[in-house]
């Protein structure tokens, strides 16, 4: 895994919301429907802090695949502004999460992004915690010390079909379990609990986290993704009604592939339905299962399979792309032979971490069942291209000449993200 933690600073400085003469609540309230956000929301320390408090510390966040924690004691750490969280697998193989803060005098416990521990030993005075969070050992304490009250502070955590979510709120959004109950049957066929990490890469995006998410939520720019486009039917932006005559044969091919995919789902007993509830609930989500062009197996040249071992219970290699979008910070692509999962975490108002993880069947062998370069080729190229789009947009929104611009007819999910964000932020600002 390569992690580039280099930061850059902008020469333009940071806009403050107060520099606009408006309060954050007023700035959010005057968001114009159908238009991009105002500069201060992409470019102020004030809004970065508000985003951490009002979005990232109040909502469920996708932070890891269970495949990153294959054995008891395996952990990842998650940095959320000033907060650091340990996500680990305990000796009963359950996924747990704790604040990465010693209960003695507060030292960070774990420094690394991932690793494996027997117990959690504080580097400062060596208080020792079990992987279940209990305080096991503390030197030189009076016999009256009640160790049972000094375990690591837990963080809400859910493992859903191999995907791990945490929430730092005292009372997490209650709709998460409902959303996951509806999504779970769609994830189950992919058997993500029986996968392994083939590759993981972090990119430090030169842009505010909202620009990273907005960029993901549309394909208006997809002619900038030549590798990705080889997998898609070249019909983006058209409907059956306005599809031009030259594309009618492609439309027919697309419809036939869609019908074959639906039939394949039915035959295998898997649900197939589009759900789109992106903007009006705390756990905004969207699921869609689409056919891919060419062979239709995977993201690769000609849509060919990139791994010989199929995931889970899927018996049909031509199984298109099941994708899940979750507010505020994740998206997922599932194919018959691999899954690619993405998470975004803010680093500061101008930088974000995009983590991409490729999952394959746990028994797949690199060099035998899959070639790593072929597996990651399309999304590596696409990530690099998206990263450049995000960076150039960040430069633009920092420019004093920037004013919010109108969304096109094919940017509905960008508008849904911005609507979700402004509603959640308005709710937070009204309550604090
Ligand atoms: S701060 Fe952890 S043992 Fe003292
Ligand atoms: Fe893109």
Provide the descriptors you would attach to this structure in a database record:
alpha+beta; single chain; Rieske Iron-sulfur Protein; 2 domains; 7-stranded antiparallel beta sheet; Naphthalene 1,2-dioxygenase Alpha Subunit, Chain A, domain 1; binds FE2/S2 (inorganic) cluster; 4-stranded antiparallel beta sheet
Q: Class of the largest domain in CATH? A: Alpha Beta
Number of helices: 8
Secondary-structure-based class equals: alpha+beta
Spatial order of strands in the largest sheet: 11-17-16-15-14-13-12
- Which percent bin holds the helix content? 25-40%
> Architecture of the largest domain, according to CATH?
Alpha-Beta Complex
The rounded Rg comes to 23 Å
The hetero molecules present are: FE2/S2 (inorganic) cluster, fe (ii) ion
- Sheet with the most strands, sense and barrel status: 7 strands, antiparallel
Q: SSE order in H/E notation?
A: HHEEEEEEEEEEHEHHHEEEEEEHH
Query: What is the CATH superfamily classification of the largest domain?
Result: Naphthalene 1,2-dioxygenase Alpha Subunit, Chain A, domain 1
The CATH topology of the largest domain is given as Naphthalene 1,2-dioxygenase Alpha Subunit, Chain A, domain 1
Rounded average pLDDT: 94
Number of domains: 2
Number of strands: 17
Oligomer: single chain
Note the gap between the termini.
Answer: 39 Å
Beta-strand fraction estimate? 15-25%
Shape: globular
């Amino acid at each position: 895994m390569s992690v580039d933690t280099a930061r850059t600073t902008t020469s333009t400085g940071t806009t403050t919301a107060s520099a606009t003469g408006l309060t954050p609540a007023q700035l959010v309230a005057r968001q114009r429907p159908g238009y991009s956000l105002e500069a201060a929301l992409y470019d102020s320390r004030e809004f970065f802090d508000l985003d951490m408090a009002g979005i990232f510390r109040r909502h469920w966040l996708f932070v890891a695949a269970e495949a990153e924690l294959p054995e008891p004691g395996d952990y990842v750490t998650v940095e959320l502004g000033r907060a650091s969280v340990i996500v680990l697998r305990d000796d009963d193989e359950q996924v747990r999460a704790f604040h990465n803060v010693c209960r003695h005098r507060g030292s960070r416990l774990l420094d690394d992004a991932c690793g494996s521990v027997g117990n959690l030993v504080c580097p400062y005075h060596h208080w020792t915690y079990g992987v279940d969070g209990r305080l096991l050992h503390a030197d030189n304490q009076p016999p009256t010390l009640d160790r049972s009250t000094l375990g690591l502070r837990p963080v809400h955590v859910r493992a859903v079909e191999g995907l791990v979510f945490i929430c730092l709120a005292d009372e997490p959004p209650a709709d998460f379990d409902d959303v996951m109950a509806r999504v779970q049957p769609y994830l189950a066929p992919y058997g993500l609990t029986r996968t392994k990490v083939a590759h993981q890469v972090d990119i430090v995006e030169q842009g505010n986290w909202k620009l990273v998410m907005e960029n993901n939520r549309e394909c208006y720019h997809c002619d900038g993704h030549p590798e990705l486009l080889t997998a898609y039917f070249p019909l983006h932006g058209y409907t059956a009604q306005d599809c031009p005559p030259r594309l009618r044969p492609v439309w027919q091919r697309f419809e036939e592939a869609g019908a074959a995919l639906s039939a394949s789902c039915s035959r295998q007993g898997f649900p197939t339905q589009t759900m789109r509830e992106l903007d009006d609930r705390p756990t905004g989500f969207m699921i869609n299962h689409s056919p891919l062009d060419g062979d239709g197996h995977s993201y690769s040249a000609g849509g060919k399979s990139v791994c010989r071992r199929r995931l889970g219970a899927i018996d049909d290699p031509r199984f298109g792309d099941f994708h899940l979008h979750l507010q505020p910070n994740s998206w997922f692509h599932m194919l018959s032979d691999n899954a690619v999962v993405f998470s975004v975490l803010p680093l500061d108002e101008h930088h974000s971490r995009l983590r991409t993880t490729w999952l394959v069947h746990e028994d797949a062998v690199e060099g035998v069942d899959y070639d790593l370069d072929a597996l990651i080729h399309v999304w590596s190229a696409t990530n690099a291209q998206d990263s450049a789009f995000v960076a150039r947009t960040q430069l633009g929104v920092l420019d004093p000449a920037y004013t919010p611009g109108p969304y096109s007819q094919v940017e509905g999910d960008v508008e849904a993200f911005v609507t979700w964000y402004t509603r959640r932020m308005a709710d937070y600002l009204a309550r604090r």
